[in-house]
Each structure stands twice: as structure tokens, then as C-alpha cells.
Amino acid sequence: MNKSSIYIVEDSKATANLYKSYLSELEYETKIFHLGTDAIEAIAEKLPDLMILDINLPDINGLDILAFISANKLPVTTIVLTSHGSAENSEKAMELGSFDFIEKPCTKQRLQVTVQNGIEHGNLVEVVEIYSDKFDKNEFFGFIGSSMEMQLVYRMIESAAKCYASVFITGESGTGKELCALAIHESSNKKDKPFVALNCAAIPGELFESEIFGHVKGAFSGAVQDRIGAVERAAGGTLFLDEICEMDINLQSKLLRFLQSGTFVKVGDNVEKQVHTRIICATNRDPVVEIKEKRFREDLFYRLNVLPIQMPALRDRGEDILLLANHFLEKYSKNLNKKFQGFSESTKKYFMKYQWPGNIRELSNVLENSVIMNDGLSLEMEMLPNSMKERIEKCDDLLGKYKYASPGNVIELSVASKISDDVELEPFWKTEQKVIQAAIKKCGDNVHLAAKKLELSPSTIYRKIKIWDGQK
Question: Which of 19, 207, 352, 439 has a CA-to-CA distance to 135 between 20 and 30 Å?
């Protein structure tokens, strides 16, 4: 098996050699470059599996190298080295596609863990690219959807199921994070072992440690008998920690210790126990923000974020919206002995137009409410809950004023800030196209950066570009 190759781009010879010695313990093939131009020439000749990149180089800025890799869509996982407190550079690095960033000076453990995570991430991406064209699925372990976004999730789940590393699932509320965790467990060779789910946001802080690690009788007031904690109940299987960013900061250190050693101590006990439990966690928050605000331990994040999976928002999944809507309509009609067989064209249109802030959970609730309260063969617009229709009407008002409504944001278009009778109106998609194209140009043709500025998914922009190209 070939060793993973790593390029270290660092102007300080002493620091570069130190990092090389750290990585030699993991038996990686490493090369050192002190100039950015030398690194670019080396990349052009042979791509490494991973690059450790210092921003402050004597000839060019390290971000320029990252921009070169991003612009040419080179399959290189990058880890950026930043000086203490340089949050702006860190943000730019992530916008340009860096896998991670490390503040200097860094410890051996931090560098080794981050590099191992980066190599694993690159391997998973490669697997996804190889097999994505061969295994398109409409359904997968409880998921329904055939969009490109969900095909990527399916591939990541299959890859994660083959190993026992920690998984960190991110995504908005209602996108299916717990279902993703269960799918990883059910598709693994540990599916006959326990799957234990714990919602970190629903447990009082004073009971948290007991819920996770258990307690012995008399450990605290009300502890009338021994209790087995979640890590022990999930022994040999999977422990799913939902809303992980809600965990008390003091308990996070104990979870980190468990991840590092596999050992724990029950509350009120002094006997150390050991179990082998896989940890899958999820959050609807941005972990990077939580770390900056000192609400989440950085070292814990890097222990958990070995295999990251991003769940797409429903609004970014295209025709999956109607696939799911039909599924829920059939399910609730059958359960309630109703005769609904489909949707009117106007209802379909609004379903595709609506932003679905509550994602799949909201879609399910909307369909259940509509089926309970109405009868018929076709579900019509007037059958939808009033709350949804009110939000749609507000959206229509914005569109009528030539404003573009994006998730969580409204961007007023300068081209339509004033509309008079002599102004020639155009289809809204053309106005939307102008805004997105202008944003991409302003961001130096970086689609991912433009998507972030517009608060859209990059896949949404790529899909719209494909549609616009077909309309030429």
C-alpha cells in the first residue's frame, strides 16, 4: 500500500523539520518547500495527498497557492498554518477550500490528528468521485432523494460504515442528521450491536455526566440505585450525541478523555471502566463559530471531526422536494384512510418555490396537517396550513418588489430599486441570474465564496448555471 505524500510549505527551516519529524512517526512521505513558487512547481509536476501551507512566505502569500489549487480544482487536501489571532486569514483559507487551519505554534498531537483527519477526508472524497456515477439511489436506509446532494451523502455514509472512526454530522434542523447516524450504524458490521441516541440539548446540565457515564448509588441526592450510562449501553455499537454543541464545556473534557483512552468513571465511583463505543455526533450550529466563542473545545472538535458529513437543506435538493411530498402524502393518506393521490400543479409550484426553513420535518408536518384537515383526490393550495400560506404570500410580496429572497437573508437588487411604468420588466430568473453572475465575478470566479456571500449552497448555484446554459 502506497504511503500518503505530504508537502510542507514553510519558510522556517527549523519549523519545517520539526513538523517533518512529527509526521515521520506516522510513516508519511514528506517534502519540504521554503518558497511558494517552488511548491507550485512541485504541484504542477506531481500532486501530493495533502499540503501543510504557511501563509507568510518570503516570495508569495500562501493564500495565493490555495487560490491556485482552488481555481484549478486540484484534488489536494490543504491545512493552513496561521499566526495567533489571524482570524481573517483563517476565514479566507476556509473560503478557498482549505480542509482546516492550525494556529502556530502547534503541538505534535494537534498536527498529527489534523493530518490524519485530512488524509481520511481526501480518501473519502476520492471514493465518492469514483463511485458516484455508478450507484445512483432514490432511497437509502430511510432516506428518500435522488439529487446529487443526497448521492454524495449516501456515498459518505457507505464509506463511514466501513470503519469505526468518529463522525461529525452538520446541517440545519430537520435535515435528517439522526437518520444519517442510524444509517451509518445499520450499514456497518456493528448493526447487531446497540444504537443509543442522546439529545444533548434535552438533558439538564446537572444530570449530563450521569446520563453519559452513569452513576453509582448514593452519588448524589436522588441516586437511589446504580445507573448505566449511555457510553456503556452502547458498548460495541454506536453512541449518537445529537446537538453536541449544547454540551457543558466542563463535561467536554471528560468526553475528550473517553475518546482518547476509551475509559470512563461513573459519577460517585473511583473505578475506571473501559468500553469500545463508536461516537457519532451532530449539530445545527457552526462548530467553528462555537469554538471561536469558547463554547466548544477545539481539541474535542478535531477528535470528533474525523469523518465530516454535511446534510443539505431541503431547498437545495431540487426535485427531491416533490419525491418527499409524494411519500408523505401517500403515508398520511393511508394512515388516515384518505383518498389523496397527488398535488395540483399550483401546489407543486409553491412547494418548489418555498424555502422550507424547517426542512423535511416541516414538509412532513405540513402534509400531515393538510391530510387531517381536508378530503379530496388532489391536494390544493387552499388546503395548506395558514401559516405556510402566509409565508408564501410574504415571499410573493418580496418577489413583486424585485427582491431576491435567500435563506435567512433578503438582498435588494439595485437594478430594480426603482420600477417605473417605462421600465421593461423581465423574467425573474434573468434578474436572479444577473445577481448570481455579478456575485461570482466580484468574488474572483470563486463559486463557493459567492455562495457564502449570498447565503446559498454552492450546489444550488451550479444547478442554476446548468439550467441557464440550457436556456441559451
Answer: 352
Residue 3 DSSP code: P
Q: Which CATH number fits domain 315-400: 1.10.8.60, 1.20.1250.20, 1.10.20.10, 3.30.470.30?
A: 1.10.8.60
Which of these, 152, 147, 464, 137, lies nearest to 320 by C-alpha position?
147
Res. 1: pLDDT tops 60: no
pLDDT tier for residue 412 given thresholds of 50, 70 and 90: very low
Read off the pLDDT of residues 325-334 as tens digits, 9 standing for 90 and up: 999 999 999 9
Query: What residue ranges do the domains of the chain occupy?
Result: 5-107, 132-312, 315-400, 406-472
CB 324 within 8 A of CB 313: no
Pairing relationship of beta strands 214-215 and 227-228 according to DSSP bridges? antiparallel
Query: What backbone phi and psi angles, to 5 degrees, belong to 267?
Result: -60, 130
As a whole number, mean pLDDT of residues 194-219 equals 87
Query: What would the CATH number be for the domain defined by 406-472?
Result: 1.10.10
**DSSP assignment string, 45-104:** H---SEEEEESB-SSSBHHHHHHHHHHTT---EEEEEE-TT-HHHHHHHHHTT-SEEEES
**pTM of this structure:** 0.59
Task: Tell me the per-residue pLDDT of 426-450, one tens digit each, with 9 for 90 and over.
Answer: 666 777 888 888 888 777 676 767 7
| C-alpha closest to that of 238 among 190, 183, 178, 303 | 190
Residues 6+ apart with CB under 8 A from 83: 55, 56, 89, 103, 104
Which among 412, 325, 308, 281 is positioned nearest to 100, based on CA atoms? 308
Q: Looking at domain 132-312, which CATH architecture does it have? A: 3-Layer(aba) Sandwich (3.40)
User: Which CATH number fits the domain 5-107, given the four candidates 3.60.20.10, 3.50.50.60, 3.40.50.170, 3.40.50.2300?
Assistant: 3.40.50.2300
Topology alike, domains 5-107 and 132-312: yes
Considering the chain, what is the average pLDDT of its residues?
A: 82
